[in-house]
Design brief:
This protein has 354 residues and is of the alpha/beta class. It has two domains: 203 residues, Isopropylmalate Dehydrogenase (3-Layer(aba) Sandwich); 123 residues, Isopropylmalate Dehydrogenase. The chain contains twelve helices and twelve strands. It has a twelve-stranded mixed sheet, with helices on both faces. The chain is globular. The N terminus is likely disordered. GO terms for molecular function: 4-hydroxythreonine-4-phosphate dehydrogenase activity; metal ion binding; NAD binding. Belongs to the PdxA family. PdxA2 subfamily.
Length: 354
């Protein structure tokens, strides 16, 4: 599936948030920005985080800690492939021990995201790429957000958004996100279904594929099996899909997830809607691993994340792989130039009456 084109030729500026400094974020960030000079041909990466923690990460990765350079504004970035340019956000976190849950590290990961959002609101960056944070550490630091996605939506004051996993041309939208399974069932509502299908429709239109089929997973086993296993598929999802079709969205389903997702992996579907977190995440990660990224649809700037956690068990050992972060930077650089089209289309789609 094609990405929005870059009509200006300008390399997009990406705010790379450092994540939880007690995890592998500093190490994989250092590897990504010092060991992959080809990224500088497609974007200008600027780290939002902590210089001392980043220098520690460079040491763990066997790289030069002196390559870390503090700047005060993204417009100061030189994009030298031999340097990592970082916006210092708050006090130094270089003393934080790796591999342990730490409230100060959790507070830092929160601050990095908030600062990146500020830069986005002020038009100083074109996209956000996030290294992993630890939710328990963030909560211990006093910030009770379910995860990156909800925090980003709050900072940009958007109500209609979706967590989307992507590998190649395959996109897994999620009807509900970071919540319990019981809450996910409760939040599978007509309004949320309409909003999510509008987002998916807006996304494929902005990418130049307005007729792209969108497969919707059933919430219940066998998509309810004619109400034998629940009523939500017949009473909520099926009517929402019909309403989406009336709005010109090529939606299909609900289709049993154990049939739809394997068919998508084989290439039959490029756009899939999962009803809850693990319905999408578990099979996606099993198949794609480090080849996948997490995109947030509905924000005014593109946000792409690694599709893995903080990996406290291997932090500081010099063995963390940066492949997913490299891929996240590449995907953000490809999507950022045309992202306003995606965002405006999402706004227009979400405002369409059900």
């Amino acid at each position: 599936m094609p990405s929005p084109s870059n009509s200006t030729g300008r390399r997009p500026v990406l705010a790379v948030t450092l994540g939880d400094v007690a995890g592998i974020g500093p190490e994989i960030t250092a590897r990504t920005l010092l060991s992959h000079p080809e990224l500088r041909e497609i974007c200008v990466p600027v780290v939002v985080g902590d210089a001392d923690a980043l220098r520690n990460g460079a040491r763990y990765a066997g790289l030069d800690p002196e390559a870390v350079r503090v700047i005060s504004d993204p417009r100061e970035a030189t994009n030298d492939p031999n340097t990592i340019e970082v916006l210092q956000t708050g006090p130094s976190l270089g003393h934080i021990p790796v591999g342990e849950l730490n409230a100060a590290a959790g507070d830092g990961s929160y601050r990095f995201v908030v600062e990146a959002c500020r830069l986005g609101r002020e038009g100083l960056i074109d996209g956000i790429v996030t290294a992993p944070l630890n939710k328990a550490a963030m909560h211990a630091g006093g910030h009770n957000w379910p995860g990156h996605t909800e925090l980003l939506a709050h900072e940009f004051d958007v109500r209609n958004f979706s967590l989307v996993l992507s590998a190649g041309d395959l996109y897994f939208f999620h009807l509900t996100g970071h919540m319990s399974l019981a809450d996910a069932v409760e939040n599978t509502t007509p309004q949320r279904s309409d909003d999510l299908l509008s987002l998916a429709g807006a996304f494929v239109r902005a990418l130049g594929k307005p007729d792209e089929p969108i497969g919707v997973c059933g919430l219940n086993p066998h998509a309810g099996e004619n109400r034998i296993f629940g009523n939500q598929d017949a009473d909520v999802l099926a009517p929402a899909i019909e309403r989406a079709k009336e709005r010109g969205i090529n939606a299909h389903g609900p289709i049993p997830a154990d049939a739809l997702i394997p068919a998508a992996v084989r290439g039959k579907w490029n756009i899939v809607v999962a009803c809850y977190h693990d319905q999408g995440h578990a099979p996606f990660k099993a198949v794609y691993g480090d080849d996948g990224v997490n995109i947030t649809i509905g924000l005014p700037v593109v946000r792409v994340s690694v599709d893995h956690g903080t990996a406290f068990d291997i932090a500081g050992q010099g063995i963390a792989r940066e492949a997913s972060l490299v891929l996240a930077c590449e995907r953000a650089a490809a999507l950022a130039p045309g992202w306003d089209d995606v965002y405006q289309a999402a706004i227009a789609g979400a405002s369409t009456p059900a």
